[in-house]
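User: Okay, second chain of the day. Same drill as before: sequence in, structure tokens out.
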Amino acid sequence: MIDSSSNIYSKAFELADTIRDKLGARKHQVAIIFFDRFTYSEGVSYVNDNKKRIIEITKRGDLSSVNLADKGSLYILTMADFVGGLEFDAVILVGVDKGRIPDIAKATSTATKMYQNYIAHNRMYVSVTRARKVVNIIGEATRGESEVLEHAIKTSKIEVIK
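Assistant: Same drill. Structure tokens below.
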């Protein structure tokens, strides 16, 4: 859990570098995955402002972009909706916190809330299973822990670091 929204992007790249070094992996083998368009857009702005070298995957299963990332020594930025069919040594999931995952702010009925919860679990499952070795999840401490992670936290399957 990170102290502010502006720090989640720098932390994502810091983790990517650390993981890459520990695994002896190449940059394209680490994917930074977002779950909503707003957070993704802010992440791209962070990349541009800080002159980070990345490639964006903007369609499902885009192996050609992964190959370009390999050739250019680039990190991969994408959204959870586009990682199906791809595999990485590590994934960093950005913006997984209360209110964003699941996104129930605009849900007006119980059915809509249940559907948003289902979608959030599905997108988390797909994203987590893209990693061969390492998964890191970043959220904002001020928002709190995502309900999607509640059981895993309670049963000590994942460790929350603040």
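The beta strands are 30-34, 54-57, 75-79, 88-94, 131-138.

User: Thanks, on to the next one.
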